[in-house]
């Protein structure tokens, strides 16, 4: 897979937080590392906010990825737009640079989190599921402590049972 190098100097220049820079320095004392090595280390450390920052801030983007289904992995990271043809249920962490687009129904549940903007025909967020970004859909349902953090935009939006939409 295509890759690039991340440097401590680049992190400083782009405004990475102190904690993120110190974490990078701890694991990569030479001051540079392969992009995917850094992503894998962040996954192992469960530093998902740092992955989100890397995706949003660093100048590395891959072409759109079109899939029939999302790989069955606890954490999925892609530095570009991800397009899923068909319904999908998210039960882990999904982090994208260009957003997640679903041609069908999207279900986010069981402490699952999507980091990035999301678009689907129908979006259901429940059971502590979370979208850290904007949600776009014809129908959006948020319930059972589900959360959308960047606003919800759709024809029909329902919030119940401690669901929450911010933004």
Care to describe what's here?
The structure is a single chain. By secondary structure, this protein is an alpha/beta fold. It has four helices and 17 strands. Helices cover 22% and strands 38% of the residues. The strands form three sheets. Strands 3, 5, 6, 8, 10, 12, 13, 15 and 16 form a nine-stranded parallel β-sheet that branches. The radius of gyration is 16 Å and the shape is elongated. The mean pLDDT is 95. This is Polymer-forming cytoskeletal protein.
Q: Could you provide a short overview of the structure?
A:
With 167 residues, the protein is of the alpha/beta class. The protein is 22% helix and 38% strand.
Keywords:
single chain; 167 residues; alpha/beta; 2 domains; nine-stranded parallel sheet; six-stranded parallel sheet; 4 helices; Polymer-forming cytoskeletal protein
């Amino acid at each position: 897979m295509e890759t690039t190098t991340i440097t401590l100097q680049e992190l400083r220049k782009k405004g990475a937080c102190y904690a993120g820079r110190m974490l990078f320095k701890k694991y990569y004392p030479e001051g540079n590392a392969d992009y995917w090595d850094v992503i894998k280390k962040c996954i192992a450390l469960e530093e998902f906010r740092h992955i989100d920052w890397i995706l949003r801030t660093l100048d590395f983007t891959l072409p759109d990825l079109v899939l029939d289904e999302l790989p069955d992995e606890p954490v999925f990271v892609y530095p570009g737009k991800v397009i899923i043809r068909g319904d999908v249920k998210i039960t882990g962490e999904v982090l994208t640079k260009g957003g997640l687009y679903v041609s069908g129904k999207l279900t986010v549940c069981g402490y699952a989190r999507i980091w990035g903007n999301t678009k689907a025909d129908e979006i259901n967020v429940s059971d502590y599921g979370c979208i850290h970004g904007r949600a776009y859909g014809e129908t959006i349902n948020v319930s059972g402590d589900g959360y959308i953090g960047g606003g919800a935009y759709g024809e029909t939006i329902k919030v119940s049972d401690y669901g929450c939409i911010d933004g």
